[in-house]
Recover the amino acids of this structure.
């Protein structure tokens, strides 16, 4: 089963290095300050991500319509 | 003169006094147990020696020359005839004895291991801190305590045992303090490091007392009783014992008394010195007064709840906080708090004397501390405090000059912080202006009950008086009640009209028409003095009276509680009536709009006026509730009975078909469950139907008015009183068996009828039948239990949440971060909105555009 198709699972995408840099600059953060996601998290299973990648999560929000969240992949 | 600090403290070391230091720090050697001579004058070399400080007015200290209260007191010493163990060092002494060789006095650790241990200790101390190092030392000491042979000189070690509290045996032979001291003296400084003792300012032989310090008389003052007799402090008593026994011991030794006698006296000396330090040593009988009362010696003074730490240091009382019962006063402003006179005369505000306010402050001093707006203390420029009494008043008035501080009584308009626990909110502690009132309780405007979650069934609240200009300014700007009207949780007002305030305005705006005289009277008594907005005609509509309060350029469109449109055009209420939806707390949409446009001060003023207007309207019109309010019109009762009878019939049919096995089950349910569901459904339908009949039929009674405008009560309450109470439910089900197969012995087993399962078809006005009352009590008890159990549980959940999130903060870039700047949310609340700037969590873009365009 592909859980990323489930209606309760928000869309996860892996950021390119350029986009990653943009996020870091925008919030003036390093990997250390970002929220984390485990490498073997089922939601990013299909993304083939490695430690240090930044995952963008697009969620539907009751108040904001669409909310964007970033997580950095860590080793479980 | 202010105390000048001319040395800067760079570091503090804690250690133990050596006998030499004790002698050097002393001003007197105590040699005699006598306290006073025949004239009542302190004896030289006695325990009350004048060199140890003064406690008598008029005398001067022989050491520093100062008078009573100026002289801090000075230490003295006594030389003990025989050394004695210090009770608080028994453990250390024992460790030292056990871990050192009896003949060569080296530590019982081989040299090669010793080096290794120092390395480990160094590392642990550096990396894990002081506490970890101490643990490590303990582990090492415990490991080598049991060695049987000295690794340095190969002497066999004897077993050392402690006979509590302070006698040491080596192989069943008693070691005297002299012998112990001799051993400790031999331990080298290098070896001491193993025990964690830093060499240089410590020697283990100092753990045995040879010279004892005598505390200054100022810490053990004697009291003169009414009879003129002197009563000495417990410490002095104890010290007297010590000096006396010491003296006898000296004499006996010098006289060459038998060893037995000397040892007995020695033991006695040890006992007295031990109880001097600590009179609560488990194995020792406590030293007592002649009357049998236990002496309070050094350790007792410091420890436990009534000791110096918890009682005097942590438990200090001040003259700027207060607590008492609260009660309501709808006539004071939202921003005010009523403070009893008796409290205002204790709570003080410090005010600095300047050349401009000196005359003003002199009035307070002239009144003294017993006449109301008075003052209790003055502080001179050097910080010295003087109590204002009838006797000192004249002198203080004389010397008062700019730079002094006067601690005057609390007066109207002073700033105070008001708080009610549990402080779950930022609104649980708000700033109020003081209003001094007669009575014994704090008074507050009932409209601020909501943010404090207070009621008047005996609640108490705390009051704090800020003592500096900065604190007052901060409190006033950030915490004043009117600045807290809009809740940061949902963006609506937390304060609003309540109860009579709502009812009165509802009636006024809905149906009242007044004569001009009545209208003026009404407005004037609710605090409105500008009546120019009142239309110039004889008959004035209630809506027009209400509109006088509104600002002329105020526009508002909304809905009232019953769904009708409320329209305010240019400060005139055109349609709809004022009720809970626009005036109430936690809704108050109109109030929200006024706050946004006219600011906090105006809103709080308006709220006060509206509230007062409502209350006045109600008291002029008259408003009361009675049994007749629950009467139904003719025919309604029959109609309701019919509805219920029909429902019961329906239920009976359901039960019948169930018993005959004819009932068809709903998908996913058993037949029994289906029956329950269908019964509940038809009973509920019947209840709702009779409820609506009742609501329709009830005359316009006070109860109904209150329910309609949301002041108190709801349609369900009214239906329960007039028509039918309805089904009682436990855990979402009809009441099930309390006895075997039935709810009460009054019914037949397995009776599924509504009556037998908690359906109450009476109403409160008629009264309940016994079994109905019992079912009502069952659910009532269940609800009570539920709240009693849920409150602490949710309180704990809230505590964990608030502790986990307390340092989260919205940064300037809109992200939410914790104390280590880690991101928690990329945009606050996903939408970046400040809730307190919104209406119920959302921004009305259309309205904003309209406002912007309209302004052009």
């Amino acid at each position: 089963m592909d859980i990323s198709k489930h209606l309760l699972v928000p869309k996860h995408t892996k950021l390119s290095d350029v986009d990653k840099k943009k996020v870091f600059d925008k919030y003036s953060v390093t990997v250390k300050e970002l929220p984390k996601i485990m490498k073997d998290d089922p939601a990013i299973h299909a993304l083939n991500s490695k430690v240090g990648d930044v995952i963008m999560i697009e969620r539907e929000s009751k108040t904001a319509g669409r909310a964007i969240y970033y997580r950095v992949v860590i080793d479980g | 003169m202010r105390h000048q600090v001319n040395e800067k403290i760079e570091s503090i070391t804690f250690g133990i006094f050596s006998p030499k230091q004790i002698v050097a720090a002393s001003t007197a050697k105590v040699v005699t147990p006598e306290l006073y001579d025949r004239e009542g004058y302190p004896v030289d070399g006695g325990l009350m020696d004048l060199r140890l400080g003064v406690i008598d007015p008029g005398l001067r200290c022989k050491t520093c020359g100062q008078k009573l209260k100026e002289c801090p007191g000075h230490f003295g010493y006594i030389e003990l005839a025989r050394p004695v163990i210090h009770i608080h060092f028994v453990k250390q002494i024992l460790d030292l004895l056990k871990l050192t060789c009896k003949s060569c006095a080296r530590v019982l650790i081989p040299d090669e291991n010793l080096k290794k241990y120092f390395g480990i200790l160094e590392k642990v101390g550096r990396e894990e801190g002081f506490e970890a190092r101490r643990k490590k030392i303990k582990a090492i000491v415990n490991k080598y305590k049991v060695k049987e042979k000295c690794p340095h000189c190969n002497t066999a070690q004897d077993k050392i045992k402690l006979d509590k509290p302070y006698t040491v045996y080596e192989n069943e032979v008693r070691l005297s303090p002299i012998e112990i001291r001799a051993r400790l003296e031999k331990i080298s400084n290098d070896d001491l490091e193993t025990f964690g003792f830093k060499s240089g300012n410590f020697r283990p032989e100092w753990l045995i007392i040879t010279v004892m310090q005598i505390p200054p008389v100022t810490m053990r003052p004697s009291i003169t009783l009414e009879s003129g007799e002197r009563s000495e402090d417990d410490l002095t008593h104890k010290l007297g014992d010590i000096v006396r026994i010491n003296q006898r011991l000296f004499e006996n030794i010098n006289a060459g008394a038998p060893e037995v006698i000397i040892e007995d006296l020695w033991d006695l000396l040890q006992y007295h010195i031990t109880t001097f330090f600590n009179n609560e040593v488990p194995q020792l009988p406590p030293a007592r007064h002649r009357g049998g009362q236990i002496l309070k010696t050094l350790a007792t003074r410091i420890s436990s709840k009534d000791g110096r730490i918890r009682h005097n240091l942590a438990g200090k009382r001040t003259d700027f906080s207060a607590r008492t019962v609260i009660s309501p006063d709808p006539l004071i402003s939202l921003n005010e708090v009523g403070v009893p006179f008796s409290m205002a005369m204790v709570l003080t505000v410090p005010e600095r004397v300047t050349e401009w306010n000196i005359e003003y402050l002199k009035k307070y001093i002239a009144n003294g501390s017993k006449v109301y707006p008075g003052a209790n203390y003055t502080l001179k420029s050097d910080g010295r405090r003087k109590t204002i009494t009838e006797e000192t008043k004249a002198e203080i008035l004389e010397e008062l000059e700019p730079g002094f501080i006067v601690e005057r009584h609390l007066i109207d308009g002073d700033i105070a912080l008001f708080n009610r626990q549990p402080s779950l909110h930022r609104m649980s502690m708000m700033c109020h202006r003081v209003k001094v009132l007669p009575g014994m309780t704090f008074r507050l405007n009932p409209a601020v009950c909501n943010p404090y979650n207070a009621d008047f069934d005996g609640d108490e609240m705390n009051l704090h008086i800020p003592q500096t200009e900065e604190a007052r300014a901060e409190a006033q700007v950030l915490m004043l009640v009117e600045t807290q009207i809009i809740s940061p949780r949902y963006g609506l007002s937390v304060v609003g009209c309540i109860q009579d305030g709502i009812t009165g305005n509802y009636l006024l705006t809905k149906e009242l028409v007044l004569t001009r005289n009545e209208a003026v009277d009404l407005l004037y008594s609710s605090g409105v003095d500008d009546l120019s907005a009142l239309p110039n005609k004889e008959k004035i509509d209630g809506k027009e009276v209400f509109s006088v309060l509104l600002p002329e350029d105020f526009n508002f469109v909304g809905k009232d509680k019953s769904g009708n449109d409320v329209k305010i055009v240019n400060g005139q209420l055109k349609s709809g009536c004022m009720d809970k939806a626009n005036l109430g707390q936690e809704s108050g949409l109109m109030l929200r709009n006024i706050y946004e446009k006219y600011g906090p001060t105006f809103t709080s003023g308006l709220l006060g006026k509206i509230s007062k207007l409502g209350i006045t309207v109600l008291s002029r019109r008259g408003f009361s509730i009675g049994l007749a309010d629950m009467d139904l019109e003719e025919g309604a009762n029959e109609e309701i009975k019919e509805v219920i009878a029909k429902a019961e019939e329906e239920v009976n049919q359901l039960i019948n078909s169930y018993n005959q096995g004819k009932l068809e089950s709903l998908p996913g349910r058993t037949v029994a469950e289906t029956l329950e569901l269908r019964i509940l459904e038809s009973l509920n339908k019947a209840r709702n139907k009779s409820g609506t009949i009742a609501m329709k039929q009830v005359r316009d009674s006070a109860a109904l008015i209150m329910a309609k405008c949301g002041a108190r009560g709801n349609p369900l309450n009214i239906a329960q009183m007039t028509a039918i109470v309805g089904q009682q439910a436990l855990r979402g089900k009809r009441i099930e068996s309390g006895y075997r197969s039935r709810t009460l012995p009054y019914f037949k087993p397995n009776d599924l009828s509504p009556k037998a399962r908690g359906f109450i078809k009476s109403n409160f006005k008629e009264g309940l039948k016994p079994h109905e009352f019992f079912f009502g009590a069952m659910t009532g008890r269940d609800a009570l239990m539920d709240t009693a159990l849920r409150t602490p549980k949710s309180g704990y959940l809230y505590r964990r949440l608030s502790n986990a999130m307390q340092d989260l903060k919205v940064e300037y870039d809109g992200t939410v971060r914790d104390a280590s700047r880690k991101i928690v949310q990329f945009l606050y609340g996903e939408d970046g909105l400040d809730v307190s700037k919104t209406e119920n969590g959302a921004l009305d873009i259309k309205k904003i555009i309209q406002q912007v365009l309209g302004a052009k």
